[in-house]
Amino acid sequence: MPKRLAITIAGAVSLGSYEAGVLYEVLDAIHQHNSADGVTDDEKILIDVMTGASAGAMTAAIVAHKMLYSANEFRGPYDNPLYNVWVKRIDLAGLLKTVDKTTGEAEPPLRSIFSSNVVEGIAKDTLLGRYAPGEWPAPITHMAAARSISIGMTLTNLNGVDYGYDMQPCGKFIYTRHEDQMTRVVSVDGSDNPEVWRELADASVASGAYPLAFRAKELDRWRADYAKNGLEPWTDDPSRFTYTDGGILQNEPLGMAKNLVDEIDKHWHNDSRFYLFVSPHGRTSSADSSFCEVNADYFQMMKRWAKVLLGQSEFQDWITAVEMNEQIALMDARASELAERLRSGEIRSGSLKRTADGLLRVLFTQPTRTGTRQVAKIGKETLAEARRRIEHQYKEEIASLGAGSYASDAFRDTVLAFETAANLGQCDYMRIYGIAVSEELLAGADLTGFLGFFDERYRVHDYDRGRMVARMVLTDPVMSEARELGPIRYTPTHTNPIDSTLNGLQLSQLSIEEQKEFREGVKKRVSEMVRYLIGFWSYPADVVVIEPLMNAILNHLFRE
After folding, report:
1. pLDDT digits (tens, 9 = 90+) for 470-489
2. pLDDT tens profile 124-175
3. Residue 299 and residue 432: Cα distance in Å, rounded?
4. Per-residue pLDDT at 479
5. How confident is the model over 390-424, as pLDDT tens digits?
6. DSSP letter at 289?
7. What is the pLDDT of residue 245?
8. What does the pLDDT read at residue 125?
9. pTM for this predicted structure
10. H-helix or E-strand spanning residue 7
11. Coil, helix or strand at residue 277
12. Which of the given ranges, 226-235, 480-489, 543-552, has the highest pLDDT on average?
């Protein structure tokens, strides 16, 4: 069986250019590796899961679509769908154009600061352009792609979905959930059509609808998309919900990737399963000991609030995975010790087998409800299925005890009892590789990640930085150790020299021309909002109030 890779892409705003560089390098490396002479099927690497938040959701959708159907578009490091979208196409000038040049429609002034038309156009062209003529060519599938790919995108549901839970002694507690997601499985053979990708294109735009900066996005959702336990009745199916940036509540959906993997692997073949986590954040602390009550003015509070909100939506799944890996490693260590003691005769297999049998009968029987206490449902896995899984997971220990022997059966059942009692039956060790970077090495990280939109040079810088960081990870000797993803047979291709003077660029360091473009664009948009609200009185309001106020705010912003 080939090695399977699940990729999670964090939210990034303009730092999507960094993630684009990482993804290009990863795809190029896997393409070279899978094409190399002598590489066996078991040594090949296939991407079968992609999850993303915000900008990462758009990138995940683009990569999945192009890998499955249009691999020929990856012509080179500086001519491919990721580079063309994140470096060449999306910039401040386009975001400030609030009138769609094709339709002539104006962006509603009170719905967003920037135009969402650019993002909508990118989704339409990259994910639906293939189908525009009405007929489309046969798919050209990338060497890195599995035949089917599970896609997941985080969403923030502004309406909310209700779940009800019984209260004691009577009544019901209603919990409204706003953290949302969309997951779909797309394939070479069954999903190459506009209906499938129109839904994913809309979801990718919704996932990246940064609050206030871009307008919210409506999506039709089906009841089947949501967990059934406690879900309150729906009036319509599908129902329409309004969404904003998925990265607000979950910016790094590693847990979603694990859930999609479980649907594929069913907790088997974990030896050939790997995870890749791509983020432009996380290598530096966001703590700020200097922040205090005295300097907590509006500007400082807004900046700190953004840092706090983003920080709490990051790395939660990673931390959970690390903690779970520690529990599983402890379980494996105890299993190894048990096998050794059975081999030495220190533990008698007969009595152990009888004890384990009794425990498993209890653990795999659904308890009945007693009194008013709710009883959780046990897993769907049967005892026979669980035993086969343990035999596969611990095949080396079982072989050392003699497969089919009383000792090996005692080992299997005891380990299964340990695992079930610890609630680890649906958990797997996750081998996660991280390709993250310090924001001090990026050009577009300031202004909560929007700075990269100011100049193509900044996005080129961050794209190449992504390629370089990915290269360091992919060629690290650790990757070639036993049970790791490598060794990966690839030769890195040309990368442009990185302009180190752009490292850690701040808003205050921008040129006068760049500052002026931003100032004029924001002031123009604010004037449009005022004009929309008060009509005739907007001109005197502009001159007397808005202009001086905006100048003061922008001056403060550029001084920070």
Report:
1. 999 999 999 999 999 999 99
2. 999 999 999 999 999 999 999 999 999 999 999 999 999 998 887 788 889 9
3. 38
4. 93
5. 999 999 999 999 998 999 999 999 999 999 999 88
6. T
7. 96
8. 96
9. 0.90
10. strand 3-9
11. strand
12. 480-489
Active site residues: 54, 245
Token look-up 């003529």 returns 133
Q: Which long-range contacts (CB under 8 A, 24 or more apart) does 124-129 make?
A: 124/201, 126/62, 126/65, 126/66, 126/81, 126/85, 127/61, 127/62, 127/65, 127/197, 127/198, 127/200, 127/201, 127/204, 128/194, 128/197, 128/198, 128/201
Reading the block at residue 220, the tokens are 């039709």
pLDDT level of residue 541 (50, 70, 90 thresholds): low
Contact 467, 25 (CB under 8 A): yes
Cα 352 from chain centroid (whole Å): 44
In angstroms, the CA 301 to CA 506 distance is: 19
Residue 187: beta bridge partners?
148
Torsion of CA 296, 302, 304, 306, to 10 degrees: 170
Q: Phi, psi at residue 174, to the nearest 5°?
A: -105, 125
User: Coil, strand or helix: which one is 47?
Assistant: strand
d(C-alpha 144, C-alpha 37), whole Å: 16
Count Cα atoms within 13 angstroms, Cβ side, for 268.
Answer: 12
Distance CA(372)–CA(374), nearest Å, equals 6
Token couple for 291: 């922040």
Is pLDDT of 121 > 70?
yes
DSSP string for residues in 87-150? III--HHHHT--B-TTT-PBPPTTT-SS-SHHHHHHHIIIIIGGGTTS--PPPB--TTEEEEEE
Q: Is 38 left (phi over 0), alpha (psi -120 to 50) or beta?
A: left
Contact 188, 68 (CB under 8 A): yes
Percent of the chain at pLDDT exceeding 90: 67
